């Protein structure tokens, strides 16, 4: 997909944070400062989008798996939709410590979620005493909220896509510890030195996030349709 500077401006990708909130490590990706707000260099954004798209398509063509992570309010719904559209997995509520580094324990929680779902489907929960049934349903809802997006993930993901780096530093650290490749949308308050591949862009606007996540999703789907 060819992305133009005009499109990116229209979608607001160039708006960074207030200059006083910046991370100096993002200086190479900032074009200027306007009314106290940093403006991202969209020529670099365009170059990085091409690199990320190429990587996602190639990875998908090799049957790699993808986990989308973004728990801030404006990202949560888009993260779930993008994962669904690209046959991927997601975390959009809260990153549970050890989600990746303690995956074997997480798998036990996922197994519990699936067991409770099965019992609910076959009416097993309805046959329990009312208080016990209510506790089981509450436990299922909590597990579904935090693990629903990864319940069909059989193993650690090959690639993790992160939206909102400052909020998701636990995910960043776990990826780095395990050597899992990450792709991050980096706003002007982020740290490019702890991201593998990245796109310098506005990570707060729903319009900007929808635009970028659609590009990522399309790149993955394209790769999934390439026969190796």
Topology at a glance:
Layout lengths: L4 H6 L4 E4 L11 E5 L2 E4 L1 H20 L4 E4 L3 H13 L3 E3 L11 H19 L8 H18 L11 E5 L5 H10 L2 E6 L10 E4 L5 H19 L4
Parallel strand pairs: 4-5, 4-6, 6-7, 7-8
Antiparallel strand pairs: 1-3, 2-3
Structure write-up:
One of its GO terms (molecular function) is structural constituent of ribosome. The chain has helices at residues 5-10, 42-61, 73-85, 103-121, 130-147, 169-178, 206-224, and strands spanning 15-18, 30-34, 37-40, 66-69, 89-91, 159-163, 181-186, 197-200. By secondary structure, the protein is of the alpha/beta class. The strands form 2 sheets. The protein has a 5-stranded parallel β-sheet with strand order 5-4-6-7-8, with helices on both faces. The two termini are 21 Å apart. The chain contains 7 helices and 8 strands.
Query: Unreliable stretches, pLDDT < 50, 5 or more residues?
Result: none
Helix content: 40-55%
Briefly, what CATH class of the largest domain? Alpha Beta
- SS class: alpha/beta
Number of domains: 2
The name of the CATH topology of the largest domain is Rossmann fold
Alpha carbon gap, first and last residue? 21 Å
Task: Tell me, briefly, the overall form.
Answer: elongated
Number of E strands: 8
Annotated CATH architecture of the largest domain: 3-Layer(aba) Sandwich
Largest sheet: 5 strands, parallel
Query: From the alpha-carbon coordinates, what is the Rg to the nearest angstrom?
Result: 19 Å
With strands numbered from the N-terminus, the spatial order across the biggest sheet is 5-4-6-7-8
User: Can you give the mean pLDDT?
Assistant: 91
Order of helices and strands: HEEEHEHEHHEHEEH
Distinct helical segment count? 7
- CATH homologous superfamily grouping of the largest domain: Glucose-6-phosphate isomerase like protein, domain 1
InterPro entries: Ribosomal_uS2, Ribosomal_uS2_bac/mit/plastid, Ribosomal_uS2_flav_dom_sf
GO biological process, one term: translation
Organism: Paradoxia multiseta
GO molecular function: structural constituent of ribosome
